[in-house]
Amino acid sequence: MTKRRKLYEGKAKILYQGPQPGTLVQYFKDDATAFNAQKKGNIAGKGVLNNLISEKIFSGLEAIGIPTHFIKRANMREQLIKKVEIIPLEVIIRNVVAGSMAKRLGLEEGMELDRSIIEFSYKDDSLGDPLVAAEHALALGWVTDDELDQITAMTFRINDFMCGLFAGIGIRLVDFKLEFGRYVDENGDEVIILADEISPDTCRLWDLKTMKKLDKDRFRRDLGGVEEAYQEVARRLGVLPKGGLEGE
Ligand code: UDP
Known about the structure:
By secondary structure, the protein is of the alpha+beta class. The protein has six helices and 14 strands. Helices cover 28% and strands 32% of the residues. The strands form three sheets. Strands 8, 9, 10, 11, 12, 13 and 14 form a seven-stranded antiparallel beta sheet that branches. A five-stranded antiparallel beta sheet has the order 1-2-3-7-6. It binds uridine-5'-diphosphate. The site of uridine-5'-diphosphate has 14 residues, from strand 9, helix 2, strand 12 and strand 14.
């Protein structure tokens, strides 16, 4: 796909103007950041793997009726997506205690939760994506009541689908982050759809038997074997490319 005008460059992805109105091209980089970009690095082949992993998951979600921004994969590093107005919330769902929740509450990582939890963070790098209550999002006009209900219902459905998908390949889905956007559909109606990506950058994935971490925590915590972990997730999902990970 020929490169079009760059509209936005983030930490792990670039957005280009798409070939049709209302579309964008989402390019996946190998760059990795953690701790609000204080730690920077590069994970060889990550962009290709996240593109393929995210395609697999978004296609599966579309198949069960979850509307997403995904249109089609364009090449090894790019996908064609619908342009949305991103809602400034990181929607986090947790099945097992880990990461910031363990730290904040002084809990051991690995504790199974009696029920899955949804948390919201305000998407603002300069503030470090602070945790907010749903009330903040409503009172500050970031979402309407109806939008928040839709986001919550979709997030639980996505969690159910993904827990099953990963359990089937021997992986515990510990937690993950979603982003949603507003999209004007063919009928001119504004609808909420799933946006961004779902990949080992945005999920905690632990091997069910060994508990080995197969996600970005290997990079965040300097555990080594980062590239291998992303490849392992892709391999188990059946999307590891046989011809190598160059895909520039
Ligand atoms: N997460 C993410 N982007 C963020 C923050 C979190 O994708 O900016 C994901 C993270 O990979 C994990 C989940 O959301 O799967 C929960 O993250 P947590 O709140 O524990 O924060 P962290 O420990 O990553 O700082």
